[in-house]
Amino acid sequence: MKLVLLALSVLAGFAMGALGLPAAFLTGPLLVAATFSITNRPVIRFPLFLYRLAQSVIGVMLSFSITAKSLQTITAHWVPVIALVLAMLVLTTVIGIVLRRLTDLQPGTALLGTLPGGAGEMIAMSDSLGADVRLVTVMQYGRLLAILATISLVGHFAGASVGGGHAATRAAAIHLAEPLHYLISAIIALIGATLGTRFRIPAGTMIIPAVLAALAGIIGVPAAPWPPAILGTAYLVLGLQIGSNFDAAVVDQLRRLGLFVLLSNIFLVGISALLAICLMPLLKIDLLSAYLAATPGGLDSVAAMAADLKADAALILAVHSLRLISVLVIGPFLVQVVGRRLAGSEDCLQKPEF
Questions:
Q1: Which of 76, 116, 220, 324 is most exposed, with minimal Cβ within 10 Å?
Q2: Which CATH architecture has domain 2-349?
Q3: pLDDT tens track for 226-247
Q4: Distance between CA 292 and CA 220 in Å, rounded?
């Protein structure tokens, strides 16, 4: 059955690629794996190091979208960047409070389900804070699917080309030294995966390889863009792993909260689009890069899309990294303080009994 899942995932990747959708081998396998997981069929779960390595491969690819101009833009316009991060934190907190009042969700569950950290980080944090892990999973991954769908639409209407781009240009420039440059790429990816697995650095397996590969290019020993087969395999691993996190229990919870979760996700995605439109003239960037920076999706999935759509990786990594760190630092405090105020007692964060 796992071979069937793998075959269908590859076919789904090719099908989405034929439709011109970005990161086809991420979204296609993700949807197939989620379907298998929800219907209680066997799924493929990769070892942690292999999953981190796939993220690092994409991180290396992101380095080819990091330019001196984009770094200068961030430095010169740090106020709008920080304002964007703060605005998303405030908006998601408000959405969580409203969701709490409209449903019987616990405050901690409502807030962690809406905060714009990575889905994995929010799910891991929810258990230690006494929130309902299942409901946080529903809300975070439901939003992830909505964001992936909207990114595909924005990329299409923004006229973004899929795949290649920077990579193809760079490859043509260094074709005489391919073995050395591919070796550099491989070493950087292994370093990123090792450090990310060993020290559990938030989004480290994306950020570290991107930074190292960019630095390698600056000192005159550039890494090489990955061949399509390697990059496609990395997307495939990410898609299968993320999709396998969905299960039947998640669907059961959606029966009770589906409408509220859907409306909150639609509102959040709409606000992200408005913030992106406001960000465009301030930073003088394109709509796609602005939307990818403003969207509350997890860094791994958004970064994968950015690599495939040749968006402004430096801006996107900066905003998402800053936001993720902010959520990880203030998230627990925010959940406890808001939770006490809403519930009026210390035990508001205890897990509900089913």
A1: 220
A2: Up-down Bundle (1.20)
A3: 888 888 898 899 889 878 877 7
A4: 30
